[in-house]
Amino acid sequence: MFEIDTRCVHPSRCSRAAFGSITTPIFQAATFVHEDIGSESEYSYSRMQNPTRAALEARVAELEGGVDAVAFSSGMAAETALMNIFESSGHIISGDDLYGGTLRLFRHNAVSAGLRFDFTDTTAPENVRKKLRPDTKAVYLETPSNPTMQVTDIAAVAEIAHSVEALLIVDNTFLSPLFQRPLELGADIVVHSGTKYLGGHNDTLAGFVVVKTPELAEKMRYCAKTIGACLAPFDCFLLERGIKTLSVRLEKQAANAEKIAYWLRERPEVRKVYYIGFPDHPGYEVTKRQCSGFGGMLSMEVDSPETAREILKEVRLFQYAESLGGVDSLITYPMLQTHADVPEEERLKRGINDRFLRISVGIENADDLIEDLRAALEK
Ligand SMILES: *Cc1c(COP(=O)(O)O)cnc(C)c1O
User: Fold this and answer.
1) What are 88-112's pLDDT values in tens digits?
2) CATH 3.40.640.10 describes domain 4-244
C-alpha cells in the first residue's frame, strides 16, 4: 500500500474512468436506464448512488481506512443522517466542546427524535466511563475539539465505549485523515465536514460518514437514501479535486500554523494560545501518539474585547469569516458565529468569551500572515 500522500492522488480502489479520463467525469444524471427487467444496472437513481459520488466515497473510505463512506450535502447533513441509525432510542455520551451546529443538533433535534445525551469532558476518558448506562449506544467526540483544541485519547475512549458495546464516533474534521485516522485507533465511525480540509478551498459544502463494518455501512446507506441529503455530482467532483491536494495544503497550513502559534504566544496582547503542537499542551503526549501532524488550527484569548474587535477589523490577509480548512486564512469570532447558539454560561465556562478568536491558517506566506497580525495588533 502506498503512503497517504500518494493515495490522496491515486486511490487504489478506484478503477479508471470512461475513455481513460484522468479525472472522474461529472455524471449529471438523476436517473439511469435499465435494459430489461431483471438486468438492472449498477446505478438506478442518484439519491441512492451516482458514479461521480461513488468514486469520491471510495476515495474517502480508503483514506480513513473504512469499508464505506457516504457523502452528504454538508457536515450537518451527515451528522443528522448518522443520528438516524439509532432508531429514536438510546443514550449517547458526547464530548462537551463541539462545533456549535453539532451541539444544536444534539440538544434539540436529536433529543426530540428520542435520543438522550450526556455531555462530558472526554479529555479524561474516565469521565466517559462514569456516564455509561446499559442503553448507551454511542460516544461522540471531536479531537482536537472546536474551538478550544482539546485532545482526547481515541484508543482509550474506544475501549470504554466497547465495554458496553457502544460505538465510538469521532469528528475528524480538524486534522483530516492525513494527520489522524480514528478508525485505526479503535473508533467505529468517522464524521467529516468535507467543507473544511477535504474540500479545502472554501467553495463547497460537503459531509461524510465513514464506517468500519459492513453492518454499519448498510444502516448508513439506508438512512442516507431515506433522508436524501446526498452530495450533488458537481460538488463530488470539487471534493475529489480538493482531496488530491490535501497533503500539500495541509502540510503548508500546519507549518504556517506552528510559526504563527509560537509568534502569538510571545505577544503581550495575547493571554493564551490554544495549539496542540505546544509541548506544554495538556494533550501533547496523546497527540504525539495518535496524530502525525498538528494541523492548521489554533485559537487565542487576547487581553480585551477591544483587541479582539480591532484584530477582526484591521486584518487584511486574514479574513473575518466563519469556516476553516481552506487555502485562505480566516479568523472566526466563535461567540458571535460558530458558537452563538451555545448557552452563555456553558460557552464562558469553556473560555469562549468576547476575547476568544479562532484562526484557520491558510497556505499564504507565513511571514506575510504574521505581519498582517502584527499590523492589526499594533494599530
Ligand atoms: C463545520 C463543522 C461541522 C459542520 O459541517 P458543515 O459542512 O458546515 O455542515 C461539523 N463539525 C466540525 C468540527 C466543523 O468544523
Assistant:
1) 789 999 999 999 899 999 998 777 7
2) yes
pLDDT at res. 14 = 67
CA–centroid distance, 76 to ligand 1, in Å, is 6
**322 within 8 A of 331, measured Cβ to Cβ:** no
Q: Which three cell numbers stand for residue 29?
A: 444524471
Q: In this predicted model, what pLDDT tens digit does every residue of 197-214 receive, in sequence order?
A: 999 999 999 999 999 999
Q: 50-64, 242-256, 301-315, 331-345: lowest mean pLDDT where?
A: 331-345
* Ligand 1, pocket residues at CB < 6 Å: 74-76, 99, 101-102, 142, 146, 171, 173, 193, 195-196, 205, 207
CA of 227 to the centre of ligand 1 (A): 18
Residue nearest to atom 1 of ligand 1 (CA): 193
| CATH class of the domain defined by 246-377 | alpha beta
